[in-house]
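Researcher: I've got a protein sequence and the SMILES for pyrroloquinoline quinone. Could you write out the 3D structure of the bound complex as C-alpha cells? I'd like something to compare against our soaking experiments later this week.
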Amino acid sequence: MNPWSREEFAARLRAVATDRYHDRHPFNVRMHQGALSPDEVRRWILNRFHYQRHIPVKDALILAKLDTPALRRAWLRRIQDHDGEKDGGGGIERWLRLGEAAGIDRARLEGGEEVLPGVRLAVDGYVNFCRLRPRLEAVAASLTELSAPTIMRTRIQAFETHYSWIEADGLAYFQGRIGQGGRDSTEALGLVLDWARTREEQERAVAALAFKCDVLWSLLDAIEAGGRP
Ligand SMILES: O=C(O)c1cc(C(=O)O)c2c(n1)C(=O)C(=O)c1cc(C(=O)O)[nH]c1-2
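Model: Sure. Here is the predicted complex with pyrroloquinoline quinone in place.
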C-alpha cells in the first residue's frame, strides 16, 4: 500500500488526537461544567500527580532512543520542564502547588497512597510502551498534546469560574503547559512526519496515538469510579 501524503498523514494524526481525546470523557466534561465536588477535584489532582511524576521518566526512556545531539538536546528540555533546573522549579513542583492550593498537603501527594489501581496500570502502560516501542511510536504517543493547549485554556477558565475555592496561584501549572504543550507537539509532529516513511509505519504511529488516548481515557475512568469503600 502506498504511504499517505504528508498532509493526509498529519490530518489522520490530528483527527485521532481530537476525536479520542479525554476532553470528551464524562468526568472531564463534568469538571469543566463545574459539577465536581471538592472531593472529586482533589481525587483528580492526587491521581493525576501519579501521571505527572512519570512523564519525565518516560521522556528519559525516549531520550535514550535518540541518536543525535540535537534530538537529545530538544528532548532533554521536556525533562527539565517537569523537573526544573533546580529544586523548587518545574512542572512537578507546580503540580504540588496546585495540590496545596486545593487543600492537599504535599506529603499526601508525594506519598501516593491514594493513587487508584486503574491509574497505576494506565501510567505503567504508558511508561512501558515508551520503554519497549521504537522511537517513532513512543514520540507519536506524545501527540495527544496537539489537543493539550485547548484543554488547558478551557480548564483554567473552568477552575476560575467554578472552583474559586482553589487559590489562583495553583493554576500556574496549566498556564505553563499552554506554551510548552504547543511547542512540544509541533516538534513531535515534525519528527513523526519525517520518520514514518512507509504506510505501515504511518499506521503504527496512528495506532500509538490511539493507544495514548486510551491511557488518558482509562485514567479518568478509574478516577470517576472512585476509591475503595
Ligand atoms: O491535563 C491534560 O489534559 C494533559 C494532557 C496531556 C496529554 O495530552 O498527553 C499531557 C498533560 N496534561 C501534561 O500536563 C503533560 O505534561 C504531558 C506530557 C505529555 C506527553 O505525553 O509527553 N502529555 C501531557
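Model: The chain is about 75% helix and 0% strand. The CA atoms of residues 101 and 169 lie 7 Å apart.
Researcher: Great, I'll pass this along to the crystallography team.
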